[in-house]
Every structure is written in structure tokens, then in C-alpha cells.
Amino acid sequence: MRADNGLNKYHSAPYPRDVVAYSSSTVSDISGPAFAHLLMLEAAQDRVGYADQLDGLRRRIKAAYSLSSESEIVFAASGTDLEYVALASVHGRAAGGIHNVLLGADEIGSGCIHSAHGRYFAEATALGIPSTPREDVVGCGSISLVDVPVRCTEGVACSSAEIAQSLASEIELAKASQRHALVHIVHGSKTGLVLPDLTDLDGLQARYGEHATFVVDACQARITSAAIAAYVERGCIVLLTGSKFMGAPPFNGFAVVPSAVATRASPLPNGFAQIFNRAEFPENWPGVGRLGEGQNRSLALRLEAAVFELERFQRIAPDQVEMMIAAFDTVLQAEIIEPLGVKRVLPNFTSANGASLNLPIEMRTLATLDVSMLPGLRTFDEAQALHKELAHDGVRLGQPVKCVRQDGGWGGTLRVGLSMPIMSAWAAMNADEIERQLASDLGLIAEKLREKTLTFA
User: Fold this and answer.
1) Beta-ladder partners of 213
2) Cα–Cα distance measured from residue 336 to residue 350, given in angstroms and rounded to the nearest whole number
């Protein structure tokens, strides 16, 4: 947290602010209703213990997503820390260790490269214990790591079939070295990619069976209950965070682990005692007794805010959600894309001619814009600088992502995304009122972009 303005490195605050924020693909400020909810909880005299609080959150998450009571929920301080949970779930499954196959590391978070390798990624763990980045976490065993790109060198998203072929090659390598393949798939990357699709996932599972465990990076939380159920039924671990689409403060997350996967896990590595408290794992997880009885009350509050937003959002009728997203598409086109002459980066659900191919509704809550044709936004670095400047000027958008090629380098992009708090605030509005609100907000964003870029014209 910066002392001069009270914001963290993502330009968000731990309290509600009156800003135009469509930044849920990066991070969100806490909403006014969630903040009031947390204040009420803190004022209550009957505060429950840490373990009981987390157990209550587990029950509410399962209810909100209609998950089986047998699914296990593990909490962590970030999406990066959730990678340790995936490792723990397959620890000891093969004599040679784990072959961890990441998918599109550039589109999921840089720190994951280290935690997915069973190493520390920061100078202190979530428990405040000093650590050395890139140093091994004790007891994780032998872990090999590879990153499979989700885009070609020109920035174009790979097809599901192409990704499935790359993943199959890595699973074959794992088998040859007597390692268990922990294979990542992505449901909602920084630019909304979903790779591979369920058909190709089923093909991989049928082909490799017990040689591979699949973990779904859904850390954006742009995923429906039905999609989570489809993955869990297939024995996949699903990782989610509460600070993106859910709109809670940064640094909280949880993993949904199928019970059949959790019961097969070996005891937790000894080094996990430096990262997790006992209550953050289910009480029946093998080796959970190796973890300390500490409490991370701030994590519990952040998780409480996330689940509060999840429950609010899940109460919105599906047809109303569709209406809001349709309004977002229409107004984004009318207020930003057409007037500024920018382009929308196509997801992997489009054909060569740009026709939509069954774009999942949850992915339509996020638009990645190619702004490299605007003065002063030609390069990725220029877009990063403007993103920061806009944030300090009361307009918060998603951080640029490297997905547009420009003269051998990366072109400028910005992301505009809806969030659960935004959509919950619109729940009492009709379609006309929502379109007017969107026109006001997105029109202001377009105006700010014009102001900032005119100086370079």
C-alpha cells in the first residue's frame, strides 16, 4: 500500500470510492454494500472463530454454486497461492514427481511460474513469514514445469484442437519420465479465452486416464455454476479468486477440489506450514495436522466480501443478466469502439471471418480493446503508462495485455469489464436505465481517452 494515496500497486483501495471502474479483469475496489456488510460483521459481539468462519464460507460457496457437499474447498491468499493447492492435490501420485503444465502463463499471472514449480514467489508468505523467491518449498518433491502458450507469436489465440495437441505432448513426456501430469486448462484468461473446450478435454481424459489430473484456472471467476459442475464431474480442480469479476478486495481465492482427488492426496508437504493455516484446508485433508493453528482475519474478511458479492449476483435472474450483457455489448460499440475507431480483440470463439462461435455468456462480460491505432497508445508500454494515468484520474480499466502485434513488438491494449457488484447495482434498473448508465460511464471513458491521446496527435 502506498503511503501517499492509500492505493495498492493495482491502484485499488481497501474502501469504496466514487470512480468509474470497469477494471474487474485486473482488480476491484470493494463495493459500498460489501464494505457495509463487513463493518456490520466486525461490530457484532458474537464473532465466530476463524475455523468456524471459514467452514461457514465453504457452505455458502457450495450453496451459491450448487456444488455437491462432497466437494472440498481450500482457501488461499491469492490465485498464485492456489497453485500450491493444485500441487498438494497430486503430491505423491508418481515416483518421478509432478510434471506441471501451465497454460498461457502470460495470461494468468507471472508469480504462478514460481508457485507452480513448488517455489516461493515473494519475500514473505501469506502468513508474513520471510521467504526467498524461487527457493523450493520444503517437501514438494521433484516438479518439472512447462508453459504452453495460448497465442501464436503474432498474438492470435490458438484453437482448442491445437492446445489439446500440445497438452497431449506434455502428458506423454510426463509418462516417459514417470511423473504425474498436472495439466492446466483455462476458463477465462486475462482476455477471456477458454481452452481447451470440453470435447477436447474429454478426449484427453479418455486417452490418459490416471496419468493426468486437470486443474481449471478460472481465477477471473467469469464462470457459471453449470461450467464449474461440468469440470468437477470430470474430476478437475477449479481455481477461483474473489478480486476480479467477484469484485472483492485483492488477495483472496479458493480451490474447488473433487472429493475423489482430495482423498487420494498424500500428506501435505512440511513447507506448507509456512504458507497456510490449518483452517484454510478441510479438516480431513491428509497431513493437515502439519499446519499451524494461526488465523488470518484479513483473509477471512476479503473472502467474506467475495462470497457476499457472489451471493448477491447469483440472485439475479438469468434473463436479466443476459439483458445487462447485451446492453454492455451495444453501448461499448456505440460509445467507445465506433467513435474512437478501436478494435475488439477476437476471442477464440470466432471463425476466420469474425463470426461468433457460441461465445459463453460469462466471457461476454469482458472486452479487450486494441487501441494501438490511437496516438500515444501504439505500444504496450504506452498503454501501460496511460492505464496508470487514467487510474489516478478516476477512470479504472483492466491492465493492458500482450495480445496485439505491432511492428515486431506488442501493441497497446486496454480492457473494459463488468463485475458482479456493477451488475448487482443494476438489478433494480430496467433496460433503458442500464443503457443510460452505461452510456454515461463508457462515454466518460471515451472522453478521457480522447483527452489523453490528443496531446500526442
Assistant:
1) 182
2) 21
Burial status of residue 289 (CB atoms within 10 A of its CB: 0-12, 13-18, 19 or more) = exposed
The model's pLDDT over 268-292, given as tens digits with 9 standing for 90+, comes to: 999 999 999 999 999 999 999 999 9
β-bridge partners, 344: 369
Is the torsion defined by CA of 331, 240, 395, 301 positive or negative?
Answer: positive
Are 271 and 88 in contact by the 8 Å Cβ rule? The answer is: no
How far is 36 from 79, CA to CA, in rounded Å? 25
CB atoms within 10 A of CB 55: 16
Angstrom CA distances, 283 to 74, 241, 244, 300, 364, stand at 10, 22, 28, 17, 38
For the stretch 193-215, pLDDT in tens is 899 999 999 999 999 999 999 99
CA atoms within 13 A on the CB side of 97: 12
Q: Cis check for the bond before 196: say yes or no (omega within 30 of 0).
A: yes
First CA to last CA distance, the chain: 35
Q: What is the helix (H) or strand (E) element at residue 185, kind and residue range? A: strand 180-187
CA distances, 118 to each of 78, 130, 204, 214, 228 (Å): 15, 16, 25, 17, 26
Query: CA–CA separation, 374 vs 424, rounded Å?
Result: 33
Contacts of 427 (CB under 8 A, 6+ apart): 315, 316, 320
pLDDT band at 218 (very low <50, low <70, confident <90, very high): very high
Residue 232 to residue 264: CA distance in whole angstroms = 15
Between CA 173 and CA 254 the distance in angstroms is: 30
The region of weakest confidence among 156-160, 185-189, 349-353, 360-364 is: 349-353
Residue 315's region, left for phi above 0, alpha for psi from -120 to 50, else beta, is alpha
Asked if 99 and 174 touch (Cβ cutoff 8 Å), the reply is yes
Locate 186 and state its grid cell: 483455462
